[in-house]
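User: What would this chain look like folded?
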Amino acid sequence: MKKIPMLLLLAAPYIFIAVCAAKELGGVAFLTWILLCVLIYLPNMIYAFILPGFGYDGKQLLFWSLLLKAVNIPVYGLVIFFVLLFNIFVLPMAPFLVLFDYSLLLPSSMYGVSGIIVSYRKGWLSKKETVVQIIMQFMFCLDVFSAVYCYFKVRKRSNILR
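Assistant: Here's the prediction, encoded as C-alpha cells.
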C-alpha cells in the first residue's frame, strides 16, 4: 500500500506520453499534464517526507529516488528527440519543455532529499556531503549521479553498521 504513490509516479510520464501520442499536442495534453501534477506529482513530493515516519530508512528512500530517475531517462530522451525533430518550433515551446522536465525532476528529487536527510541523521553521510548532494538533486544530469552515489554509499554504510 505504501508503494502505490511511487508506482503511480513511475507511470505518470508514460501516461502523459500516451495521451500526447493519441490526442496530439494541445488542450487535452496540457489538461493531462496539469492533472498529473496535481494528483500524482505534488502529493508524491509531500509523501517523500512522510515516509520516514512509516519506517522507511534512507537506503529505501534513496533506492526509490534512483529508480524514479532511471525510469525517467527514456522520457528525457524523447524530449531531446522532440527538440531535435522540431528544432524550428522549439523556442516557443521552451517554457513548456522546462516546466515538463522540472515536473519530472522534482518528485524524484524529493525522495532523494528525504533519503539524504534521513541518512545524515543516522550518520551515514557527512554534513558537507549532505549539502552538496541536496544541491545536486535539483540539477539535470547531476541528480542521477547524486542518486547513484548516495544510494551506493548509504547501502555500504548501512550494511557495515548492521
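The longest helix spans residues 90-121. If you want, I can go into more detail on any region.
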